[in-house]
């Protein structure tokens, strides 16, 4: 081993400047990659912060899109950590059983339902002010921008998507994050303790994925808005931008059961690991399984990732259409 190193150093010293440059460049990239791997496992081994101590005892968390999937599970994970929760939902009747269950499991905590259909958020200038009015007397310490939809469903090609679906997808996936954050940020900044904003983007916002073009584009919006705001407000607010891969929710359940989607984690796995990152990390896939998948995809040639993504999405769309035909 020592002899090999001595030979390498001798060859390096005798090489010309161009070769020395490329060798140093290669070593630099290897070193930075190794450091990132070590940093990942060190952070993974660390326990999450005491969020009550960091953000305030008896404070409130707001979760948008709280009646399903990741949003619903965040309500349970936040409750486990002692936070009262405001559930912003479209359907109150659907949400009441969730709140009843939360109250049974966490009787010392309080819950509040705010009904808001974000697809109508641009039709009324007072839409977001009305939400803020309903929570202005609460000590809100955490905002989770989770609400999101994908109305492409089984359609494979963009030109066949109904215009109504395209517009609704853009509105629901971008406007709430932008405007509810703007409406609440002063309230968060005025607190004596730190606050947190958790933005749910998607890996689809990092890597372009075919047949989800509108969803991917809106998730890129979520990602960049969150990362930019972190730079502006990080002295007082902990931002966490999350870009999960496949998470088992109502949106993905059918495709997972049919084997069209693999490498998934549960919503609970995602929310629990994500909350352990708050205050320590600003940008992450949210779970170590997704973090590893993301790292692996970054070293695969892009053309191969594109090819695999295209084939995967064909399977996803086909499985959705098969399920829809069964239900007819």
CATH class of the largest domain: Alpha Beta
Task: Report the radius of gyration as a whole number of Å.
Answer: 23 Å
Order of helices and strands: HHHEHEHEHEHEHEEHEHEHH
Helix content: 55-70%
Name the CATH superfamily classification of the largest domain: NAD(P)-binding Rossmann-like Domain
Q: Give the CA-CA distance, first to last residue.
A: 68 Å
Estimated share of beta-strand residues? 5-15%
Coarse structural class? alpha/beta
Number of helices: 12
Oligomer: single chain
Count of the separate structural domains:
2
Largest sheet: number of strands, sense, barrel closure:
7 strands, parallel
CATH architecture of the largest domain: 3-Layer(aba) Sandwich
Strand elements, count: 9
CATH topology of the largest domain: Rossmann fold
Mean pLDDT: 87
- Ranges where pLDDT stays below 50 over 5 or more residues in a row are none
Spatial order of the strands in the main sheet?
A: 3-2-1-4-5-6-9
Shape: globular
Provide structural commentary:
- By secondary structure, the protein is of the alpha/beta class.
- The chain folds into two domains: 42 residues; 202 residues, Rossmann fold.
- It contains twelve helices and nine strands.
- The strands form two sheets. A seven-stranded parallel sheet has the order 3-2-1-4-5-6-9, with helices on both faces. A two-stranded parallel sheet has the order 7-8.
- Helix 4 packs across helix 10.
């Amino acid at each position: 081993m020592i002899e090999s190193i001595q030979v390498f150093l001798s060859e390096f010293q005798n090489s010309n400047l161009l070769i020395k440059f490329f060798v140093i460049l290669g070593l630099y990239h290897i070193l930075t990659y190794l450091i990132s791997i070590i940093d990942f496992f060190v952070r993974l081994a660390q326990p999450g912060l005491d969020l009550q101590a960091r953000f305030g005892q008896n404070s409130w968390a707001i979760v948008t899109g709280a009646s399903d999937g990741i949003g619903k599970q965040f309500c349970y994970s936040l409750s486990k950590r002692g936070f009262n929760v405001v559930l912003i939902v479209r359907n109150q009747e659907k949400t009441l059983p969730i709140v009843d269950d939360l109250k049974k499991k966490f009787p010392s905590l309080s819950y509040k339902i705010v009904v808001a259909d974000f697809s109508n958020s641009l039709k009324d200038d007072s839409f977001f002010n009305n939400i803020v009015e309903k929570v202005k007397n609460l000590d809100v310490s955490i905002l989770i921008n989770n609400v999101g939809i994908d109305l492409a469903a089984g359609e494979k090609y963009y030109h066949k998507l109904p215009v109504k679906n395209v517009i609704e997808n853009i509105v629901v996936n971008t406007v709430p994050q932008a405007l509810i954050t703007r409406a609440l940020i002063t309230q968060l900044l005025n607190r004596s303790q730190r606050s947190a904003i958790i933005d749910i983007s998607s890996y689809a916002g990092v890597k372009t994925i075919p047949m989800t073009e509108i969803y991917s584009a809106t998730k890129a919006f979520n990602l960049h808005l969150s990362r930019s705001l972190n730079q502006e407000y990080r002295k007082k607010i902990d931002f966490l931008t999350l870009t999960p891969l496949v998470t088992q929710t109502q949106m993905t359940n059918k495709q997972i059961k049919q084997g069209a989607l693999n490498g998934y984690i549960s919503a609970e796995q995602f929310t629990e690991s994500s909350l352990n990152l708050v205050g320590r990390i600003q940008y992450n896939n949210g779970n170590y399984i997704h973090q590893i998948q993301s790292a692996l995809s970054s070293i695969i040639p892009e053309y191969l990732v594109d090819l695999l993504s295209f084939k995967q999405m064909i399977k996803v769309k086909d499985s959705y259409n098969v399920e829809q035909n069964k239900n007819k």
